[in-house]
Amino acid sequence: MNSIKKNRLYDEFADLWPLVSAPEDYKIEAAYWRDALHAKLGPGKHEFLELGVGGGNNLSHLTGDFQATAVDISEKMLAVSRALNPNVTHHVGDMRNIRLNRKFKAVIIHDSISYMTSEEDLLATFNTAKAHLEKDGVLLVAPDWYIETFNGPEVSHNVRKNSNIELTFIEYLHDPDPSDSTIEGVFFYLMKDGKNLRIEQDLHIFGLFTLQTWTNLLNKAGFRVEKWPHPVHSDQKRAYLLVGILENSKNT
User: Fold this and answer.
1) In sequence order, what are the residues at sequence separation of 6 or more whose Cβ sits closer than 8 angstroms to the Cβ of residue 64?
2) Is residue 72 part of a domain?
3) Based on the structure, what is the number of domains in the chain?
4) CATH of the domain at 195
5) Phi and psi dihedrals of 3, rounded to 5?
6) Pick from 221, 11, 199: which is nearest to 124 by CA?
7) How far apart are CA 125 and CA 73, in angstroms?
8) Does residue 1 lie in a domain region?
9) Residues contacting 1, CB < 8 A, separation 6+
10) What totals of helices (H) and strands (E) does the chain contain, helices first?
11) Which of 45, 56, 73, 153 is 20 to 30 A from 13, alpha carbon to alpha carbon?
12) Which of 37-41, 105-109, 183-187, 247-251 is predicted least confidently?
């Protein structure tokens, strides 16, 4: 797999994102995030920060109820999110170390958290969230997988088209080394333009940790953790929206 280029979706293929993943795909899932934010923050159009916003699909369903600021490490993906969420302030930055020097009622991290491949990465990200939270602030994070729930190999695909191309997107997930904390995702792009077919591939490395590891690291960063049901997977596998409430004495 070392010969396959990595993370091309967020760079040279960023313009394909609306075909890979559309905003309507997130409508049901976003409702869980909205309900959790309302439950913890109460009424009002509160401000939150999203780390790792990507193309902004999940965010697009929340901007009607909240004020948002967004961060992503990819300038090209931020351009996609800006087009979808024009009223949101966007910043380029790494979720592990960015500091905006302001605080929010909540911080949310969607599936981009899956790119944290070590416990050190996760803890650094949780400390970033803490640095941007007000007193009694809330962190929402939803890993795609836990060791307890990943049952690879997994294959998924979709087909979408726009006025220029038809894209068949295939995602293959597997765990080549169960002894480490990562899994691999190989993405295939079949791009059809009239009679021409172009095929490209793309390697992504994701972190895989136990649910207890997530909880322990959130605790270490100063959060009390609640596990909320998050039944968003088509195969009905268990998933949790982790809700971290910042402990007052540890907010620095």
Assistant:
1) none
2) yes
3) 2
4) 2.20.130
5) -80, -10
6) 221
7) 13
8) no
9) 176, 184, 186, 203
10) 6, 11
11) 153
12) 247-251
- Give domain status of residue 178, yes or no: yes
pLDDT tens, position by position, 108-121: 999 999 999 999 99
What size, in residues, is the chain? 252
The structure tokens 């009905």 sit at 236
Sheet containing 196-207, strands listed edge to edge, beginning at the edge strand earlier in sequence:
154-161, 166-174, 182-193, 196-207
Give me the chain's average pLDDT, please.
94
Residue whose entry in the numeric block shows the structure tokens 């400390």: 127
The 10s digit of each residue's pLDDT in 116-165 is 999 999 999 999 999 999 999 999 999 999 999 898 899 999 999 999 99
Cα-based distances in Å from 225 to 35, 139, 148, 210, 211: 17, 9, 18, 15, 11
Identify whether 2 is part of a domain. Answer: no
Which residue shows structure tokens 């009694």? 136
37 closest CA partner among 59, 10, 5, 66: 66
DSSP letters along 57-111, please?
A: HHHHTTTTTSEEEEEES-HHHHHHHHHH-TTSEEEE--TTT---S--EEEEEE-G
Question: Do 167 and 227 reside in the same domain of the chain?
Answer: no
Instruction: Identify whether the C-beta of residue 188 lies closer than 8 Å to the C-beta of residue 169.
Output: yes
Nearest-angstrom CA–CA distance, 156 and 169: 8
Q: For residue 61, what are the domain limits?
A: 8-145+209-250
Residues 96 and 190 in one domain: no
Same domain, 138 and 230: yes
Block residue for tokens 């020097």: 101
Cβ 69 vs Cβ 93: under 8 Å: no
